[in-house]
Amino acid sequence: MTTRRGLGAATALVFAASLMGGCAWISTQGAISSERSLAAAGFQMKMATTAEQLTALQGLKQRQLFPKDRDGEVRWVYADAGYCKCIYVGSQKAYGRYQRMQKKEQIAEAQEAAAMNWGMWGAWGPWY
Q1: pLDDT digits (tens, 9 = 90+) for 40-78
Q2: 32: Cβ–Cβ under 8 A, 6 or more apart, which residues?
Q3: Which domain holds residue 38?
Q4: What is the pTM of this model?
């Protein structure tokens, strides 16, 4: 009886670990996609090359754009201490390009979903 319980716990542990690994992979793929889009929009990437830079990078909001005022101008910042250990910084123009790119991507995804052959799933009713 003890062996079966131990086996069940071990199986659950392996399942949980693989699930966490899958989530990490998805997160990394999202970061790669975002960072490619930022670069294409004109954001500049700088690597954290010193311990001081890495510490500062880790103190920023991670994997989300936020505005930062510098010398009276707004700069948009995206920090990634986990994957690339880098920071992306862009002007207001670069941010606008990034927003337009994201909107086009959302529209393309919606059009792709709308074009799917929904009939292959059979009947959808009755609706309650």
Answers
A1: 999 999 999 999 999 999 999 999 999 999 999 999 999
A2: 83
A3: 33-112
A4: 0.67
